[in-house]
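Box 3.1. Reading complex inputs
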Amino acid sequence: MSVAAEHRTATSTRRNMFRRPTSETGFWSWFTTVDHKKIGIMYFVTAFFFFLVGGVEAILIRIQLAQPEMTFLTADQYNQIFTMHGLTMIFFAVMPLGAAFFNYLLPLQLGARDVAFPRLNALSYWVFLAAGIYIYSGVLLGGLPDGGWFNYAPLSLIGPNPTDILEAGTATSQHVSRMVLYSVGLQIAGIASLASSLNFIVTILNMRAPGMTLMRMPIFTWMIFITSFLILFAMPIIGVALWQLMFDVRYGTSFFNPAGGGDPILWQHMFWLFGHPEVYILILPAFGIVSEILPVFSRKPLFGYTAMVFSAIAIGILGWGVWAHHMFAAGLGPIANSAFGLSTMFIAVPTGVKIFNWLGTMWGGQIRLKTPMLFAAGLVGMFTIGGLSGVSHAIVPHNYQQTDTYYVVAHFHYVLFGGAIFGLFGGTYFWFPKVTGRLLHDGLGKLHFLLMFVGFNMTFGPMHILGLWGMPRRIYTYADGMGWNFWNLFETVGAFVIAAGVLVFMVNMVRSVKGGEIAGPDPWDARTVEWMTPSPPPHYNFAEIPVITARDEFWHRKYVGEGEKPPVRVPAGASSDHDPAVAATPDQSLPAHGPGHEGHADIHMPSPSYYPLVAAIGLPIMGWGILMPGAWQIGLLAVGGLILLAGLFGWVLEPSAEETH
Amino acid sequence: MKARRPRGAGSVGHQRRTAGRRVLRWAVPLGLAVLLAGCAGDNLPQDFLAPEGPTARAQDRLWNIVFWVAVAVFVLVQTMLVVVLIRFRARPTDTQLPKQTHGNVKLEVVWTIIPALILAFIAVPTVRLIFELAAAPENPVEVRVVGKQYWWEFEYTGEEGQGVVTANELVIPINRPVRLSMESTGQADSDPLGVIHSFWVPKLAGKQDVVPGHTRHLTFMAEEAGVTYSGQCAEFCGLSHANMRMAVHAVEPAEFEAFIEEQATPADIPTSGSAARGAELFTERQCIGCHAINGYEGAAARVGPDLTHFAGREKFAGYMLDNDINEGAENISAWLKDPQVVKPGSQMPDLGLTDEDTADLVEFLRTLQ
């Protein structure tokens, strides 16, 4: 326990409901922490858990489709599982994995001590977890959402089983319950994303280290910045649509019900106006990670930094003008289809710019093929395939053939698995030593990459062919004699190879957390300032906030020389431009800046708080209320609402940091 | 392909490089060959890379342009990636850092402009075809299509069609465009609350969603008589989405006329034997509440498929089960006994029929030629 914390205990005031939590370590500290690093770790662990759940669902899907007319799953089970696979991977695995990296790295890359609103950050995590628990509570409450992640109306209103309507009664309310879980669950998850996006934007705008202009920011921070804006604008759209859906299914309104004057196409517009930017929300963080990894392992700066930033901004803006390419077959008419076809083609241009700049980064470098680099190079190769099939979707007349087939399933898995997941795994190998102080085992990492790369291509490559051979998506069974048998079986084998890869990764994690090779602050000879601080970083991140004089600040502290001549390493203590103690030879200077060092006891950090957790608990309780009939509904809404209010009031009434003296 | 360089030529580093290139020289064509072999389906029922009508063929022509452009870009990027990873790998002999290049404006402009030009080149025929496909054809066979959970109803609305109603199997004359006007409804034709389906017969045309509350159109044409084109619903529509299949039978124009005549003729309702008992059960067991039979008194409901010429159909229950001489009776009996097992979520209720009732109903249905 540091001196500072003891002070805080002594002077803690009791004007609030609870005594202020003070502990920064130990089991219970995880429930009250507002430290962005701990929150980042919690995000990672939780999201990885959901990734495993989504993975098991994927395996179940693949077993069912391994052969024609399988009866491993019923139609009802299959529909729930493929729906939850999509929802889980998008909202509870890939998005929060991105958030894990954002949380942990953003302040470190900015040279800051925390995010702008630490308690809001904690709230984001707890609300995300609450949303995951809420939506999966369907396992106990009559089933999980079963309308696909896109959940088109009016299927969401009628239900997949029209006999329910004939028989009227329990079965219908079971369907309503599943749809409420979908609409309210995603609504809650959206609150988490919205809160953290605001938090990151404010942090980036206000908390950069002295000298860090926007164009000196690490490229990953740029991607966080752009992604956060996308979340900020996308979530309200789906929020409104989900709200309307909830009222349609639970309280009988008719926003999407043609029988009541509504229009199912309205749902499609709102869903995809959110849904397409969502794709970039999922992929841009991975792009940022890869743009950090490639320069470090090529020992060259990022090629075309400015082009990378502006192409990402271009993607972020164009991404709002392509949504109806998910609806080409919906019948919007030739003018709309032409316009969205053209915009979809042209979003390929900034994406291509990124691919070529990554190749330019590696060109002429000295490439060290460590695990993070393998995943990064894997992303460049695999995302290219996804990008090219994406361009083929833009030729609208042929899209009428491709859409809703396995060709599309292949496409977005090349983008989101070959892209986002590869990037996130690469980032995990890259920053794991910063988080834990230990390296992941490189040999196991390479085995993990190999299994994943092979399994990925075995699973999703043949889906292109199956789609072109006319296999539609979302079918729980198919007839023999369609010519789809071989590749389906092949894909199922591939899915198990991926699973083996994930298993190797988990073994690697478990054995490296405690037994991995000690990393030191800068194991990769990296370029950005997060590598200047010890691994794992102290609670306050930087003993002294670094002054930024260049892009790739840390690299410029280690090497001098520009232009034609190759740069050379600065001898220890030779540079007078910067604080040599932290810069040139971090290894030797470490002990002086370790946690608990007396000289830094006065660094003022925000205090832990119970209230984000309390407020988050209220939301799913209110959500369960919406599922329930009569008095239960009002009761749970009231209880949940009161808990939420108590959390918010407690929050408002406590200072962000207790006074230390 | 160039002659192989003799071994031992050049420095060690150079040798490694040529080894890498040698691998590439084989790997790229080999990969392409596998890709093409993999894509060449043996005329599979729903393979739209082998289109068989003008609509699907026009769509396929666009694909062929884009496919080869994509292959070129694919080969370029993947080759560069592999070459870069091999050629610029770190070596133990590296003593100093590589040259620190930060970018190149000329290159940025080149790799922005060239893809944009390629895309503009693709965009022109794309937009043209979008408008061509949306245009209404001259003198089409007009068919009203209704998507239901989980089967298709076809009603010939043109003058020559005589209002004939069938299910799941669409018979069309060759060399004459077919114009579908598609709706989705709930159980009854008048119930506007259906779900979205998508009409898709891949070898004839790309799909068109069928949206409740709207009418959607699709035009296509078949060219070869005697061919059956396989299709299925392509928009997720519930439990039996996978079981919502269909077929288009292309026939000679004369045969089409004969088909319409035959379908417009009322059914002969049997008056003796177990088939006659089956005909009575049709009313007694409430089949009549949902199914129409032209020629059967009072059977005019359009909740389920019209059964007037049920026995003439190749398959039934969403074009899933064979209705032929060999398996038909067995399949119909399985379907009548437990429709929810055969086709989950189907609106066909379990009537709790005895074996005897079932057998009689099967007999009756099989007389509806």
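In summary: The helical segments of chain B are 12-39, 54-87, 105-134, 253-264, 273-284, 328-337, 339-342, 355-366.
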